[in-house]
Design goal:
With about 300 residues, the protein is of the alpha/beta class. The chain has helices at about 5-15, 20-25, 30-45, 60-85, 100-105, 105-115, 130-140, 185-195, 205-215, 230-235, 285-290, and strands at about 50, 55, 90-100, 120-125, 145-150, 160-165, 170, 195-200, 220-225, 240-245, 260, 270-275, 305.
């Protein structure tokens, strides 16, 4: 029995369709279907059924799913343990979930170096919001996630380790630069008078922005709400309005005319953390990842200038 067939079964079960599983595994839909059929033939059972465009796991498939996950986890752990005992080379598979700014600003350099330094290490990286990634970590879908620090106390079974601190900034069009200084009063004037582009309050970073506005009692005239920091910056660059966002890790989009004022109070800063289970058989790989993601090491294109 090939473990890659088991991986495909788990992918279909988690994503609910052949097309989504194919995208996640970098396969064609035909290959996913063939793998499922081969696994079902080998086990002499039906694991999934097709309902329209969706794939629904059968009762027997549902009963086997957790066992299959444990088998795959044991195989990955075996490879990791073998690599740790033989040399400094990293071997095995590490499943990482990451928010978009970590995918563009923190991980590319590490992935590039490790592709050469650790060719036997397979990094499976998935995007998502902080809330989605935390849920996936708790469900066992990831070995580690890079996200905003959660707005609640983590269970004792997981550990969050600080990667970088991102103060909030008021981002505004350059033609307002002459009116600003690095003060709370300037932030208030800009956000209260310009159309406001809100960083989605459902995101963990967006909650910090909303908390600042609420605590400082700053009125706003909302233009729109987005959970996409680069899109927000581009709207400000086009003169659509002003915003309040975390000062995320470069690269930024090309926004040469934008200016920013930092919020001085660190209580509103977004903290980017690497979170993983306390008990993990991939500890040496996660430690290596933590060292590689040391704050301040990756700066490609700077963000807008301070006012």
């Amino acid at each position: 029995m090939e473990t890659r067939f088991l991986e495909t079964f788990v992918a279909v079960a988690e994503r609910g369709s052949v097309a989504a599983a194919a995208r996640a595994q970098g396969l064609t839909a035909t290959s996913v279907t063939q793998r499922l059929q081969a696994l079902e033939d080998e086990l002499s059972i039906e694991l999934v059924t097709r309902i329209g465009r969706e794939m629904k796991i059968t009762p027997v498939g549902d009963r086997l799913l957790e066992q299959v996950r444990r088998i795959l986890d044991d195989v990955r752990a075996l490879k990791a343990d073998a690599s740790a005992s033989v040399s400094d080379a990293l071997v095995g598979t590490l499943r990482i979930g990451a928010i978009s700014t970590a995918l563009t600003g923190l991980l590319p350099d590490v992935i590039g170096r490790w592709a050469t330094e650790h060719p036997a290490l397979d990094l499976k990286i998935s995007p998502g919001s902080s809330a989605q990634l935390h849920e996936g970590l708790m469900d066992g879908q990831y070995d580690a996630v890079i996200s905003a620090a959660p707005p609640f106390t983590l269970p004792k079974t997981v550990q969050a380790r600080l990667l970088r601190v991102e103060p909030l900034i008021c981002l505004f069009p350059g033609h307002l630069a002459g009116e600003s200084s690095d003060t709370e009063g300037a932030i208030r004037r800009i956000l209260a008078t310009e159309r406001f582009i809100r960083y989605d309050a459902l995101s963990w970073g967006g909650r910090l922005c909303d908390a600042y506005l609420r605590d400082k009692r700053i009125p706003t005239r909302e233009l729109c709400s987005l959970d996409a920091l680069e899109a927000i910056a581009l709207l400000v660059e086009r003169g659509a309005g002003a915003t309040l966002v975390p000062d995320w890790a470069p690269p930024w989009p090309d926004v040469p005319s934008c200016r920013k004022i930092r919020v001085a109070d660190p209580a509103y800063a977004r903290r980017i953390v690497l979170t993983h289970p306390v008990k993990t058989r991939y500890g040496h790989i996660i430690e290596a990842l933590m060292r590689a993601l040391a704050p301040g090491t990756i700066f490609t294109r700077p963000g807008p200038q301070d006012s």
